[in-house]
Amino acid sequence: MNDKIVVAMSGGVDSCVAALLLQQTGHDLVGISMQVWDYRQNGGCSTRATCCAPDDFTDARMVAAKIGVPYYVFDFEQTFKEKVIDNFIEKYKQGLTPNPCIDCNNKVKFRELRERANTFGCKAVATGHYAQIRESTNGLQLIRGVDDQKDQSYFLYGLSPEELTSTIFPVGHLTKPEVRELARQAGLTIASKPESQDICFVSGAVKDFIVRIGGKSPDGNIVDSKGKVLGRHQGITSYTVGQRKGLGISSEDPLYVLEIRAVENQIIVGSKDELERPGFKVSELNFVNSKLAEQYRSNKFPIEFKSICQMRYRHEGVPVSVRITAEDLAEVLFLDEWSTVSPGQAAVFYDLANEEVLGGGRIKI
Question: What pLDDT shows up at residue 306?
Answer without folding.
Answer: 98
